[in-house]
Amino acid sequence: MSIHLILLAAGEGTRMLSDRPKVLHQIAGAPIIAHALASADGLGGRRIVVVGYGGEDVRAAVASLGEDIQVVEQAKQLGTAHAVTMAAPALEGANGDAVMLFGDTPFIRPETLALMQNARQGGADIVFLGFETPNPGRYGRMVVDGASLSKIVEFKDTTEEERAITLCNSGVVMADAATMLRLASEVGNENAAGEHYLTDIAALGQAQGLSVEVVTCDEAETLGINGRADLAHAEQVFQTGARCAALENGVTLQAPETVWFSFDTVIGRDVVIEPNVVFGRGVTVETGATIRAFSHLEGCHVGTGAIVGPYARLRPGTELSENARIGNFVELKNAEIKAGAKVNHLSYVGDATVGRASNIGAGTITCNYDGVFKHRTEIGENVFIGSNTMLVAPVKVGNEAMTATGSVITRDVPATDLAVARARQDNKPGFARRLFSKLRAAKAAEQKG
Ligand code: UD1
Ligand code: MG
Questions:
Q1: Is 345 a catalytic residue?
Q2: Residue 54: pLDDT band by 50, 70, 90 thresholds?
Q3: Does the beta carbon of 80 sit less than 6 angstroms from any atom of ligand 1?
Q4: Of 409, 427, 399, 328, the residue nearest 365 (C-alpha)
Q5: What is the spatial distance between Cα 38 and Cα 216, in angstroms, rounded to a whole number?
Q6: Which domain holds residue 129?
Q7: Is 445 within the bounds of a domain?
Q8: Does residue 444 form part of some domain?
Q9: Is 78 near ligand 1, meaning CB less than 6 Å away?
C-alpha cells in the first residue's frame, strides 16, 4: 500500500541567521530537504511539501528534486497541525496512509518508516515516532500508558514531572491520511506558544477512541537542523556514515576521517582512496581505481584501474576509461581520456578527447576558450603530445601523430605526422661569455659611481 508524504518546510529557521531558507542549506552537496525527501523514497504515494518562508526558492529547489512533488503554501506559520491541513487539497481523493516528516530533519531511515508501517498494519490508528534520550532538552515529551501513547506535551507546556520524561517526540507521524487531516483541523491553539500543534492529535485521537502508539528509533536519526552548529554536526554525521559504508563495501580508505563524500558518490570495490580526497557531486569510481592524496573530483566518471592524483582536479564532464593515468597538478574538464592514456603532469585538458594509449606531455594546455566560445580538442590514439604544447582549439591531432615540445598547435595535425610549431634554435658562438663580461663591467661601474 502506498503512503503519501507531507513534508513540512514552512518555518523560517531564524537560528540559521541566513538569507537562505533553512531547508536549502546543504549537507554533503544536497539541500537538507533533499535528504528529508530521500527518507521517504519508495513510499509510492503523493508527495506534498508545505512551504512558507522563502517559498519561491524552496519551490524551485523542490521542482528539481522530483516532478511529481506538489508544493503548497502555508502563508502564516500557525503551527505543525495547521501546516498539515494545508496539504488537504493536494490529498483530495487520495486513499491510504500519510506520513508527516519535517524538512529540516535529514536522517530518518526508510527502515524506521517501515517499522511505523508495521505498527499501522498491526492495528494502531496513529503512530508517532519517538526516541529515548538522556538529554531531552526542549523536545516534546511522550506520556505513555503501557503500549499506548496518551499524549504529547510540548516542552513549553510541560510540568516539572513531565520534564523528567526521557521518551521524546521526533515529530514524525503516520496515520490514515483522511484521519490525520481531520484531527489536524480539529486541534486548537490553547497552549503556551499559541500554535496548532500536530502533537495534539495523540490525545485527541485517544479521546475519540482511536489507538495511538509509539515506535522508537535511535536518537541520531531525529537530528534536526536549527543552527549552523547543527548543520556542521549533520555534515559530520553524514560523512561518518558514508565512510563506514565505503569501508563496508570493500573500499580502502587510508585515512577515512580525511575523505569527504557527496550524497551521491558511488565507489566500486577495491578502490583505494588515499588521504585528503574530496568528492563533489556526481562522481562514480569503478572497481580497482586509485585516487591518490589531495585530489578533488566532481561530476566525473573514473574507469576501472585508473589512477588519479596526487593533487589532481577532475571537473564536471570528465570521463576516464580503464587504466587512464592522471598525475599531479592536472586539471581536466569535460574531457574524455580513453583507455591507458596518460596526462601525468601539470596540464589543463578541457573540452577534449584523448584517444587510447596517447601520452600528454608535462605542461600541455588545451586553449579551449577564446573569451566568448568554447572549442574542442580531439587527440587520436597512440599520439605523443610533447611537453608544453599549446593546443589552440578547435584542433585535431590524428592517430600516431606527435607534436614537438613547446609547440603552439593552431592547425590540425594529420595522422602519423610530426608537428613542429616553434621558433628554430640559433646558437651564437661565445656570445654568452661576451655578454656576461659586458654586464659585469656595467655593474662594477655602477657600484663605483
Ligand atoms: C516539534 C514537535 C516536538 C518535537 C520536535 C522535534 C510539534 C508541535 N512539536 O517541535 O514535539 O519534539 O519537533 O524536533 O510538532 N513548521 C511549519 N509550519 C508551522 C510550524 C512548523 O512548516 O506552522 C515546520 C518547521 O519548518 C519545522 C517543523 O515544522 O521544519 C517543526 O517545527 P518546529 O517549530 O521546529 O517544532 P519544534 O518546536 O521543534
Ligand atoms: Mg524544530
A1: yes
A2: confident
A3: yes
A4: 409
A5: 20
A6: 3-222
A7: no
A8: no
A9: yes
